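pipeline: protein-struct stage 2 | run 1193 | ATP/GTP-binding protein
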Amino acid sequence: MARSNRPRRSSTPKPRSGRVNKWTRPGDPGDEPWLEKARYGVQRLQDLPDGQWHVRRISAVGAAKTYKCPGCGHFINPGTEHLVAWRADHWSGDDASATARRHWHPKCWDSRSFRY
């Protein structure tokens, strides 16, 4: 009879060890900064003639909803790469500026005029 190097299983189940690996740990998306950057894009600060703006590029995979571009008035369909912009120097604070963010086509954002 051939011998096996594998240990035999016992008939009684063993209690699980307290080990946690990357597949079984409870997921908290806030504790992984690289995961947040991959999911939401990298935010950068732009100084423009009309003030400072936070700009984040949204990938085609991350775009899941339909938005209306304020630059051209056309819709940004799901699966289309685009930008999200909000003021960094908003008069009522960061929370108010984040709720007033707008989704732009990259070309519309780059070619917008600063004359009002």
